[in-house]
């Protein structure tokens, strides 16, 4: 097997096994060392993988794993899973009569006046919301769903990544307030309305309108 093809298979296998994750940077020198080859076939393989939309080559920055683009059906499926997991979390909060600790309250309130939200801040926000369960699998599942949904927005004409990140942030802030005041039925209804509205907008190829999301 030629060295170039060996590199292509190596990268694809690591993507399939999730060792190489979306947006992860690939270092030519590390791959060459791992496969005991020179950097030239690594560079050639990366160029071919870019044509296959497996990696992105960014000038002066390097090669990055291309995030998987969701179809409309996959987007809706992710949102339905998001709804199920979030409602499950809210039911648990109600059963345990959960109250957010003081430092979490301060953290949530710090978002009230923010006009811009990046994906890292959104990750921290949702991690704080789900912290009471101490369930790493649940938290990671939410992070994966939201990350994939945000990636969808990068190729969508309906909404931008910024708009979608703000919508998710507004949802979590509103749910936080409802949990603090024990309005669990209203919180669950809000999740259903949010997921239904955004899913229909994607299916019907409509632009988002915040008033439909019941914030």
From TrEMBL:
The keyword Transcription is assigned to this record: yes
Source organism of the structure: Vagococcus zengguangii
SUPFAM superfamilies, alphabetized: Winged helix' DNA-binding domain
CDD domains, per the entry: WHTH_GntR
Molecular function (Gene Ontology), one example: DNA binding
InterPro entries noted in UniProt: Tscrpt_reg_HTH_GntR, WH-like_DNA-bd_sf, WH_DNA-bd_sf
Protein name according to UniProt: GntR family transcriptional regulator
Lineage of the organism: Bacteria, Bacillati, Bacillota, Bacilli, Lactobacillales
All residue ranges annotated as the HTH gntR-type domain in the record: 1-68
Highest taxon above the source species: Bacteria
UniProt KW keywords: DNA-binding, Transcription, Transcription regulation
């Amino acid at each position: 097997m030629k060295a170039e093809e060996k590199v292509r298979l190596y990268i694809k296998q690591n993507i399939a096994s999730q060792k190489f994750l979306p947006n992860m940077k690939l270092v030519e020198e590390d791959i060459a060392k791992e496969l005991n080859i020179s950097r030239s076939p690594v560079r050639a393989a990366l160029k071919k993988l870019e044509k296959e939309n497996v990696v992105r080559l960014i000038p002066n920055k390097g090669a990055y794993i291309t995030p998987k683009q969701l179809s409309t059906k996959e987007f809706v499926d992710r949102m339905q899973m998001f709804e199920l997991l979030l409602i499950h979390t809210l039911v648990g909060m109600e059963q345990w009569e959960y109250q957010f600790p003081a430092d979490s309250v301060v953290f949530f309130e710090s978002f009230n006046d923010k006009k811009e939200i990046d994906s890292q801040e959104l990750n921290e926000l949702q991690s704080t919301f789900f912290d009471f369960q101490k369930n790493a699998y649940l938290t990671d599942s939410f992070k994966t769903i939201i990350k994939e949904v945000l990636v969808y927005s990068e190729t969508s004409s309906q909404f931008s990544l910024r708009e979608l990140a703000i919508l998710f942030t507004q949802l979590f802030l509103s749910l936080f307030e409802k949990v603090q005041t024990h309005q669990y039925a209203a919180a669950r209804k809000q999740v259903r309305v949010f997921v239904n509205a955004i899913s229909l907008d994607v299916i019907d190829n409509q632009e988002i309108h915040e008033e439909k999301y019941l914030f």
